[in-house]
Amino acid sequence: MLKRAPADLGEPVADRRSWSKKRSHGRAADNTLDSDHRREPQRPIAMFVDRSDQAAIEAAVEAGVSAYVVDGLKRERGKPILDMAISRFNAFSRTARELQEARSELENRKLIDRAKGILMSTRGPSEADAFALLRNTAMNQSRKISEIAESLITAAGLLAPPEDK
User: Fold this and answer.
1) Beta strands in 22-86 (DSSP E)
2) Rounded distance between C-alpha atoms, residue 15 and residue 83, angstroms
3) pTM of the model
4) 9, 69: one domain
5) What's the whole-number mean pLDDT along residues 63-78?
6) Which of the two residues, 77 and 34, has the higher pLDDT score?
7) Are residues 12 and 51 in the same domain?
8) Which of 33, 70, 126, 149 could in theory staple to 111 by disulfide, Cβ–Cβ 3.0 to 4.6 A?
9) Are residues 14 and 67 in the same domain?
10) pLDDT at residue 26 in the model
11) CATH number at residue 111
12) C-alpha angle with apex 95: 89 to 101, nearest 5 degrees?
């Protein structure tokens, strides 16, 4: 399995020996990251460097580095540093997942509100009755309320009279 040298964050290396040869004192050769590192990392990353500067730190953070350690790797510091990197990664991943879930829930609520508005304007029920209609339809079709709301919004858009342009 190839590893990525943390000093250049872009050049794969086959083993640790070649990794140490590729280091450039904590600086990326061109101060950029390849496109693979712009995505959210799937595992914790610990970066050990000899020297550091603000640009290298910002690039490491952007790449998703969980631990950035200056002054190299010393045997007695390795396990605590890696344990902390794993804990920080897990905390960040949990927060990112919660944020995505909150955004998705907000989007679903917006869809449901729009669908309730369409039902109230076309059929005349109260807001509670419109929601109950959406909920009952979702239960009868074994679908999510947001899916029913999205279908209703799409159908209403197709059935709306064309706008004069």
Assistant:
1) 46-49, 67-70
2) 22
3) 0.58
4) yes
5) 82
6) 77
7) yes
8) 149
9) yes
10) 41
11) 1.10.10.10
12) 135
Residue 53 φ/ψ, nearest 5 degrees: -145, 170
Count of domains observed in the chain? 2
SS3 47: strand
Which pLDDT tens digit goes with each residue over 48-59? 888 888 998 889
| Residue type, position 111, single letter | L
Amino acid letter at 151?
A: S
Secondary structure (3-state) at 7: coil
The helix (run of H) or strand (run of E) holding residue 81 is: helix 75-123
Distance (Å, whole) CA 90 – CA 111: 32
Q: Which helix (H) or strand (E) holds 4?
A: strand 3-4
Are 56 and 108 in the same domain?
Answer: no
Same domain flag for 68 and 16: yes
CA dist., res. 28 & res. 31, Å (int): 5
Say which amino acid occupies 83: D
Q: Give the span between the Cα atoms of 87 and 122, in whole angstroms.
A: 53
How far is Cα 146 from Cα 123, in angstroms, rounded to an integer? 19
In a domain, 82, yes or no: no
The residues, any chain, with a CB within 8 Å of residue 83's CB and separated by 6 or more, are none
